[in-house]
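Reproducibility note. Readers wishing to regenerate the assembly model reported in the main text can use the exact inputs given here. Chain order matters: entities are listed in the order in which they were concatenated for prediction.
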Amino acid sequence: MSIAWFKYSSPATFYGLAGKLVPWFGWSAGILTLIGLYIAFFLAPTDFQQGEAYRVIFIHVPAAWMSMFIYMVMAFWSAIGLAWNTRLSFMMSRALAPTGALFAFLSLWTGAFWGKPMWGAWWVWDARLTSALILFFLYVGIMALWAAIDDRRRGDKAGALLILVGAINVPIIYFSVKWWNTLHQGASISMTKAPSMASLMLWGMLVMAIAAWFYSIAVALYRVRGIILERERQTEWVKKLLEARS
Amino acid sequence: MKSRHKKLLAIGLGVAGLGVIAALVLNAFQDNLVFFFSPTQVIAGEAPKDRAFRIGGLVEADSVKRDPDGLTVRFLVTDTAKTIPVTYKGILPDLFKEGKGVVAEGKLGEGGMFMATQVLAKHDENYMPPEAAQALEQAQKAQATLSQ
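Running the prediction on these inputs yields the following structure tokens for the assembly.
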């Protein structure tokens, strides 16, 4: 195990690295959001069927992607944490969960807003919507489980186990529109075919998606710094750090 | 084998096992996960007879007719193989159009007429500006006249 980045699995070194990265990702996220919203509202053309209401995809799709991706990252950290017993992995998954829950909620909420005028219903129990709702409940359940267990190490392990079990839901969400007939439409963008979207619409959506990535990285790193300080407060380096500050 | 490799293997096997279980469960509930039945399935008798279900397909072109009361709508739902007549009393969603996707919830009445209590528009994954849609339509028409 002589790979250099392993030294960043130590909370003390990672604390400094995260601190340096946060402003970069934060500012890029802000700028990209402004660009993305400008494309979304001023440059992207009106849709031939849905009119202006389609513009919800600029929030809805990046949020839905992000909610699934963050869950997979949490599952990754949980598996690493359980196998290697690394402290930082559990802290990372704790830092990511609220952002994942936020995006899961956003995707459901914006979807309902769009569904009422377009489909004629706020909500239907089709496979896509139901599995996305389960993802939101998983996030909330994981955070509740962490909050309920006082012993930190046991809480970490229980949470990691729940995250890994729930990971099975993510491919179900993604493929639900293929496996079953759902009211929700199929993917406009996939690995196997050209996107079925006008290019400016696509660009707006991709910029917003990257902005969502950067935002998630920034807030997760910011949050993990807080968690590191809280958990390592008995150690020498944190004491020194706090002394230097005051 | 190091203990962390054993753990990683256990996690891998655990997740794979859960995957298999999930696949089996979803397969067993296949019928319940279906959001709608196609007209072909309904005519083949696969849809439930005594309770409400949903049918989905395309609204057949030139099939939408309004009754004099102004609220009742009759149209045909097709999957290009079979068609089913539908009646519905109420407000239709914006995206409801001939030739476009639709999902209707209701019961099968006498004579194979589907009595809908709710009509939802099913949107497809294509997003484009109206000019592009128009150009596409014209190209298709040109293609059609060429092949005649």
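We highlight two features of this model. The longest helix of chain A spans residues 11-43. The mean pLDDT of chain A is 89.
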